Amino acid sequence: MVIVEPPRDGDPIYFCHKSLVVPVPGGRQNVLLADGALYVRDKMSTRVATGAEAAELFAERGRDASLPADPDLSVVGKAICIADRHDVLNTWVQSSVEAYRTKVEAARAARQAKEAERQTSLLPGGVFGESLAESIRLASAKIVTTASSGSAEDRISHWVKSTRTDWPNSIRHLLEVFAVPVQFTIINPTDSFLSNPQMRIVIDHCDAVNSVAIGYNTCNKILPPVEPESHGLPIAMAPEIDLLTIRPVRAVQELSWEKVGTGVVVTLHPEALRSNTPWSPFRNDLILYIQDPLVTELQARWTFTAEGIHGQLAGETTVQVDQQTNTRALVCDCLSGQR
Hints:
- The protein is built from five helices and 15 strands.
- It is of the alpha+beta class.
- It has three domains: about 1-65, no CATH class; about 70-85 and about 180-335, Immunoglobulin-like; about 85-165, no CATH class.
- Strands 6, 8, 9, 10, 11, 12, 13, 14 and 15 form a nine-stranded mixed β-sheet that branches. The protein has a two-stranded antiparallel sheet with strand order 1-2. Strands 3-4 form a two-stranded antiparallel ribbon.
- Strand 1 (about 20-25) and strand 2 form a beta hairpin.
């Protein structure tokens, strides 16, 4: 007789590790226990499990088991503060208008001198001729001044109005082209292979845009001058191409985000996480920005799920705010054509 304790819920599946053979009359042997067999309790008797019963036991244990996982999220890079955007707008408008008026005045003076010279070259000499030349010179100057000043002020008025109206879009484009994206990295320090993982990150009190490549004439499109400059090459010869779009397309969108309330929700979706192998999205192109000058760091809360893990794991991290890069710095980069 073999006596064992009955199994309890949650106990691992146990295979028999030793055979027990009892001889019976007639020279035969009765195998009471078989090495490697799986036994189940059926009412008052113990017997070898059927194939269906064994499969159900393994499936049940598989549902109950959870893979080891302890993901860690790191964020490299900083959020941009654009609290100075209104001051920068006023400075940009004032300096642009002053520069344009100086340019117009210089052009007007040059045209006035050229016109007066042309008129006087057609007049006779002598005292009468000199007096008439002076009169024509003054009349020409008055006509040129009136015409140029009127059209210039109309252009300035239209430009100031459109620049102030489009300023929010200009700020967004400045961020898209000249700000540095943040980089998310996940690492699984446990000895496990995690399939279909997903990390959802909630970052409060911020906004976001996606980074784009600088293209043809981008700076003049973001910050158009009062008087657009003429370019030698036609646009057809210098198309605006986002170089990021020619990269290989991934089957799974590894990084996505959406605006939720006062913050941003970022979703990271790797195909898999290997043990102790850092993972980052193929395209780290998310730019975070804030408008409150008193905020120095952002709180980020994340949840993590994967196949083979029961429930979800959670954690927190922070995103620092760049104290050096602001709207003024982005405008300077744009005007200098840098990235």
